[in-house]
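[recover] target loaded
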């Protein structure tokens, strides 16, 4: 039997930690947590005290009104996140019973989303019109964090260098990062192009949190070169316009361009192959709509 105090306190902390990233406020300050969650400071303090009394451990180091997690607190937080996710899924299942539609929270990096998602979305909606998809665009590295903390149900990301033991995965498509420049650029006739060829050419890179950013910087560094980066942007439309106007070049997935972009893509002398796939967290219970999407992806062929 679960002690009543544990039931109450766990429920209080579950409420606190279940909202978007609000646990971070709790770590910094009780006042900040109370302000962010629109609850009283005593309610948060009481929940912490009840849990510490029930377990006979300290969950937080206290420095005045500021808090940091103890080792026991870190352990409790890991398990409370799982409990919180189960509560969220229970709520979703109950709403699913009451309503015919439910939204799948799906992440995709901007470049992948630009060329793959419209085709994928149409096919899925044609087959399953009652299921909605809400798309979140961030870099692949950030996307794994959102899958880990249950902000997203799943994500279509670059699989290269991903710790696949932590995720369930469906491989979707293999492609390649190419050097993209204006058709009138002096580099347009090169095939392939090396990093030493383009080291002084103005370059746009995706922002930190993308797969591309650290990989390309590392490739340059391996050759003791430094890229001439003039802009960091995750906006595919912005990158294309810079290339179209011959202001800069970029590294782009070959499928992300069309004939109207007035640009050319050139293979690299040292290729950068890319694997794209769907991931979701292991050992979680997914909604029936999410499972329907996974089954769709398992049969999906991008052309």
């Amino acid at each position: 039997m679960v002690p009543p105090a544990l039931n109450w306190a766990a429920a209080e902390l579950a409420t606190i930690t279940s909202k978007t990233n609000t646990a971070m406020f709790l770590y910094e300050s009780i006042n900040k947590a109370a302000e962010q969650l629109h609850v009283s400071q005593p309610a948060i303090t009481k929940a912490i005290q009840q849990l510490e009394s029930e377990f006979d451990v300290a969950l937080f180091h206290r420095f005045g009104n500021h808090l940091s997690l103890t080792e026991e607190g870190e352990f409790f937080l890991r398990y409370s996140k799982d409990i919180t996710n189960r509560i969220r899924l229970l709520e979703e299942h109950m709403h699913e019973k009451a309503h015919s539609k439910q939204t799948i929270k799906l992440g995709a990096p901007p470049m992948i989303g630009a060329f793959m998602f419209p085709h994928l979305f149409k096919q899925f909606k044609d087959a399953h019109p009652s299921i909605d998809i809400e798309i979140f665009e961030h870099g692949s590295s950030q996307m794994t964090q959102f899958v880990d903390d249950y902000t997203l149900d799943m994500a279509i990301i670059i699989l290269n260098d991903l710790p696949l033991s932590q995720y369930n995965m469906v491989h979707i498509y293999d492609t390649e990062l190419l050097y993209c420049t204006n058709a009138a650029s002096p580099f347009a006739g090169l095939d392939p192009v090396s990093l030493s060829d383009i080291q002084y050419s103005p370059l746009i890179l995706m922002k930190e949190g993308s797969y591309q950013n650290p990989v390309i910087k590392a490739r340059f560094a391996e050759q003791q070169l430094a890229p001439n980066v003039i802009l960091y942007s995750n906006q595919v439309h912005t990158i294309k316009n810079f290339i179209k106007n011959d202001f800069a070049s970029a590294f782009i997935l070959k499928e992300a361009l069309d004939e109207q972009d007035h640009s050319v893509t050139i293979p690299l002398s040292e290729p950068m192959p890319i694997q794209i796939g769907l991931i979701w967290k292991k050992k979680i219970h997914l909604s029936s709509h999410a499972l329907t999407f996974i089954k769709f992806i398992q049969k999906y062929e991008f052309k």
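[recover] notes: DSSP finds ten helices and eleven strands in the chain.
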